[in-house]
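Task 17 of the worksheet. Students: predict the tertiary structure of the chain below and write it out as structure tokens. Keep your answer in the requested format; marks are given for formatting as well as content.
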Amino acid sequence: MAKRLFISHSWSYSEPYNSMVNLLNNRLFFTWVNYSVPETKAFGHMAKYKMKEELREQIRPVNCVIIIGGMWANYSDWIQFELEFAKSINKPILGVRPRGAIQMPAAITLEADKIVNWNSDSIVAGIREIS
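Model answer:
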């Protein structure tokens, strides 16, 4: 059965998101459905409360929330919102350490159910383990 996943990302910095999508799409013996909204389908300007509701709608049906670690996560109100909402509805959170990174942002370390390195075997094993 396909895993329903939400991958946290910023439309302004979409390279890590696109890399994650490609990694999962190319992984043999793993099927998934992407509940994230990619840059190509980005919402127009909307009020903060409306954006929060859009994110809630994307996260509610998923099996797992994936947060790609990067030090920008310490300063992102949106990532913090996604982490808090996922926890509030008992969605497992997989933190993914970026290629070559040693440290993970504290916000992700504190909230993630599991943290893995950036490679397809670790990521898929982590998804399967916690979801």
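Marker's comment: The chain has a mean pLDDT of 89. The first strand starts at residue 3 and ends at 7.
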